[in-house]
Amino acid sequence: MSGPDPTSPAPGPATPSTPSPLRVGVVGTGIGQLHLLCWLEVTGADAVAIAEVDPERRERAGRDWGLPAVASLDELLDLGVDVVDLCTPPGLHEEQIVRCLEAGVHVICEKPLVASVAACDRLDEVVARAEAERGARLLPIQQYRFGSGAARARALVEAGITGRLYTASSSTWWRRDPPHYAEAPWRGTWSGALGGTLVNHAIHLHDLLTWIGGPLVEVDARVATRVNDTEAEDCAVAIGRTADGGLVTLNATTGAATESSRLVWHFEHVTIESGTEAYDPGRGPWHFDFRDPAAAERAEAAWAGLVDGPPLYTGQLQAFVDALPDGDLPVTLDDARATLELVTALYTSARTGAPEILPLPADHPARGSWSPPT
Fold this sequence. Notes:
By secondary structure, this protein is an alpha/beta fold.
C-alpha cells in the first residue's frame, strides 16, 4: 500500500471545488492498523505518515503501508500533518492531545480519551483555545454510534416515537487470552490501560446503550478478575436507572468462548434489538418490533430521510472531515466526559459496594481518578 509523501512540495492553492485532502498522521500501530485501513475509505483526507516507538513494528508498518514511519509524535508533527490520529496507550493521551492542539493540529483520539473526568475538565480550556486561536479541533472515538441500525434507533428517539424506557440490557462478551496481554504489557494495568474491561472493552457498548436509552442517573456495580492474571477487572456486572425510571443491566467479560456484543431496549412503543457482531453492533440488521401500527407508521416516516453512511471508524472519521472547519462534530468532548463519568461511577460503586449517583458532583472524590488508591 502507498500514500502521499508528506515530504513532497505542498500543492498549490486549493480552489473551493477541489480542496486539498487533509494530511493525517497515525500514532501507534496496534488499533492504528485498523484506522489506517479506514482512512483509505475517507473522502477529503489521506494518511501520509505513521509514528511508532517500537523499531521493528515501525519498520514493518512503513514497509507495509508505503508511508514514512517515524519514532515519535514530535517527529510526526514536524512533517506538517493536519490531523494526528492517536492510537497510543491510554495513559499517554492527555499530554499528547494537548501537545497536538497547541501545535494547531486536529486530534482524533482512541478510547478512553483521558484518565479521569477531571482531565476532561482540564481539556475544556485547551480545546476552546485551540479552536478559537488555531482552528484545531478534538474528536474522541466513539465509533459504535455509526451504523445503520444505531442510526435508525437514534432517529426514533429524536422523533419522540419510542416513549418511555422500560428496561434495557448491554452484553459485552469478548475473549482475551494471555498472549493478548503479553503482546503489550500495558494492557490490563491501571497505569497504562487505565483499568480493565469496563474502560477498555465495554465502554463503547455502554455509550451506545445510553445514547439510545438515555443517560443513567444511578448505578450499582460489581467487578472481578477471573479470566487472566491482570491488575484490573475482566468481569463486570451492574444495574442502572435512567431519569425516567427505566431499569438497565450491564454485563461484560473477556472470558467468553464465543465473542458477541448485544443491546436490547424495551420502550413503551417499541422493542429494539441490535445485531450481535462483537465489534460492530451498530451495523444492521437491527430488529424493531412495534407495539401498535401507529408507532410503526411514524417510524417509517422518521426513517424516510435517513441515508446510510459508512459504519464504525470510517463513518466517524468521514463525519469529522465533513464537519471541518467549523461544523458540528459527530462526537464531542462532552460525549467523552459522559462515558468517563459512567466509568468512574461504576468503579466507585464496585469499590464501595454502594450505588453511585450521576452526573458526578463537582466535589466527587473519584473525579480526579477512578483508579484504586495507591
